[in-house]
Amino acid sequence: MKRFANVFLIFLLYIFAIKELYATKNTIILATTTSTQDSGLLDVLIPLFEKKTGYFVKTIAVGSGQALMLGKRGEADILLVHSPEAEIKFINSGYGINRRRVMHNDFVLLGPKEDPANVKNSRSIKEAFKRVAEQRALFISRGDNSGTHVKELNIWKIIGKYPDKERWYQQTGSGMGQTLSVANEKNGYTLSDRGTYLALKRNLILQILKEGDEELKNIYHVIEINPERFSNINHVGARALADFFVSKEVQKIIKTFGVDRFGSPLFFPDAVDTIK
Questions:
Q1: Which of 33, 35, 41, 110 is closest to 76 using CA atoms?
Q2: DSSP 3-state assignment of 206?
Q3: Mean pLDDT by groups of 10 residues along the chain of 276 residues
Q4: What's the pTM?
Q5: d(C-alpha 141, C-alpha 192), whole Å
Q6: Percent helix / strand / coil, the chain, rounded to 5
Q7: Contact between residue 142 and residue 152 where contact means Cβ atoms under 8 Å apart
């Protein structure tokens, strides 16, 4: 009887191990930015991918910096991020492979209708940031090492300002949606990707006060984690999801996503070989 019980226990453990192995192979961990989540784009794309392939995608929506860190630790299979300089360093350090351009939108400087720093009449985004600093107008930063935060810091650096110790400069340490909420509540300025702003605009009084500069372009890439660096990752699944993002079908979805609600798309497809 005891022997039978032992055999049965071994059998159960074997079945459990097989299920765990299957679940691991069937699950893809996607580390991405809050903008792809907050805009609602992934709510459309991920269920479609899961239905077509049978994979389950676990999405971790954080800033690009945090997503890249997850990739460096082998805690994600694939990344969808928008921090080009950090991405190139990531690739050159051997953490990622097959970096491919998926889409773009742009960053916009938001603020209250009253515009106390008069940034609306500035000639460039650099001048707009200078006016904010000179007027010591409240600025709400994500402060989370995301692609948006890195872009903001680069602009401050270009104009020779380092406001992190100034009282008028506040950091949320949160994603874009939460940062927009704080800026809206406090009537401050903030830098946002256009897609998240448009998706949440109905709950905001913030307005776009500066836009259109070439340096405000916001490009998203998909990166597969290097399987030679981490043997535990689901590289087959990651490749399938990466191919899906740049496929003709998905690029067409991206091209029209948001048009019905906002009159214009939230993102623009960039996988040029698949766009017809």
A1: 33
A2: coil
A3: 48 40 73 91 96 96 94 97 94 97 96 96 96 97 93 96 95 94 97 93 95 92 96 95 97 95 91 58
A4: 0.81
A5: 9
A6: 50, 20, 25
A7: yes
